[in-house]
Fold each of these.
Amino acid sequence: MLFRQQYHWVVSSREVLLEYCESIKAEDLLKQHPSFANASMQYLLLHMANCYFFWLGEVALKKKMEYLDYQKVHSLAAIRTQFETVNHLVNKFLNTDWPEAIPYEIRGALGTTTPLKLFTHVITHEYHHKGQLLSMSRFMGYTPVDTDVLR
């Protein structure tokens, strides 16, 4: 129950971000920024979705996921579609009865984590990059909007 409410706030905050991104010129969304490891705003949005695909899709749900190609997905409409896929994935994750420990393998290393830790990771990862997106836009002369949960 609490996870669902928390994710509802994440989606609401994300929607404010995506609406704001619609006010940014398409070429600016694709502009690489040296201060952010040459990432673009478009890249970070897709990277956020790919994190959900990996941790909740592949690791937790053991689904073979198709990761987003940064060279092919450019429009905000296409990015929004990917976040709809993320929302379905999160709903499936939240509707699963999880054991206390979820095993995973990353770069050859084995580990275990908990559903709470996985869920916290993907959300904090998204918010980290959301802050970077807003900073990138400010560097390009835009005035970022308030995307906090409390706004």
Note: Helices lie at 2-21, 26-29, 41-60, 76-94, 115-139.
Amino acid sequence: MSARRRYLKALWRDTRVLVRQSRTSLLIFSVLLSVGTLSLHALYRYPDTGQPLGWAESLHAALKLIFLETVLPFPDGPLLLQILFTVVPFVGLAVVADSILRFGVALFNRRERKEA
């Protein structure tokens, strides 16, 4: 086996270990993004026109909401949307911070990754 192939195989194995250690955070982030996108698409209406959001707009708004940069006005409508606009930024911030910390520790703790 060539040195390049061994290196690529080790890199792939190392990446799998890092993803496995971060799977809970990735799963929570994916669920948060999916629920946010579906909720915004189904329930949110622009205040001035009453038009619903498209799928791309819903995905973009959900991502912005997770990272504390909402582009939409706070909804007057359903309570679920108001809860979504209030809770998602806190949960998203916690998940992102947790995943960055776990990934950073795992990335620099090479000995533990070799054991895994």
Note: The chain has a mean pLDDT of 85.
Amino acid sequence: MKSNSWRQFKAILRKDIVMELRTKEMVSSMGLYAILTMVVYQIALAEAGESFDVRLVMPGLIWVAFIFMSMLGLNRSFVHEKDQGCIEALLLSPVDRPVIFFAKATGNLIFLLIVEFLSLPIFSFLFMQGRAGYGNPVWLLAVVLFGASVGIAAVGTLLATMTVNTKGKDVMLAVLFVPLMYPLLRAAVGATFAAVIGGPGSVETFWAFMAWVVGYDAIMGLVAYGLYEFVIGV
């Protein structure tokens, strides 16, 4: 990235972070949604009894919560930009469109990671009490969280930009986002399951699923990067 582009990137990213620190709309809404989702899960599984191993469904529960939580945050971030005219100002400024994409995606990634890492201890407290968990090092869970969040932020930034000007932006974002997230969701759940359950061959299984996560991030990230210049000007 050129020095001028790097300065533009830092300026846009700093603007997003400062705005979020002032309003706390995106992080607070995602965090509240994640907590409420966990409470619903806990109530739904309360009657399963001690014989039911919640670790078998925990990875899926985590990522379903994170996927829908991310949609809420992505939509909020761009609605806020649209209402204050920030998108129009960026388009009128001499800023390269790919720089806008990288800055917005990086900001979304930071906010997603903050909420995810704050949510995991609560999730473990609600569902892992009295149960043996994390058969592998905990840092493997951090790896899959970061890897999958990169793909969510890249694709989500593109789709949120596309749908922010539509009438049914919430519905349109979900209709486009969830199907495109399926390959990433499948790989992330598999990697999380291997990290949580452990056992023979689990580390090899983990890295096999992580290869899918990295491949998805690379391919879809390049697609989002290539399309963003056309999408943001629509």
Note: The longest helix spans residues 97-127.
Amino acid sequence: MNSLKLFNIFYIFQKNSANAFSCVFAFFYVKIYLAFLIFINILIWLFAGYIKTATGVEQIALHYTVDFGIDFYGDARQIFIIPLLGLIIILFNFIIVLILSQNKDFILLSHILLLAAMLSNIVLLAAILSVYLINFR
């Protein structure tokens, strides 16, 4: 494949991506969803950073059950898996929204995908708060 064909493919991809972004961001509710998603994910990152620095140890409690108490200790850096997972969910769902931007059911599908990302990040926020309670009570 010569470089001219490669450049042409890149140009078409760039043009289609810009079109999808402008189509998606034309809806106000998408901006609201993304603002809440970014806010919640930043909160999760801040809590994870606070837990890592405030404990000051290499091993922290990462899981607690009512029957057995603390049943999983791990490296303190593993706490950052939770906000990273939230960010991956946000990016993955938003990419799907961009891909489906020309679909006739775009509004319904975008609400479902962005709401699912928001709910999963709220659950991850509850998970990081429970890790905080396990380590600091």
Note: DSSP finds four helices and two strands in the chain.
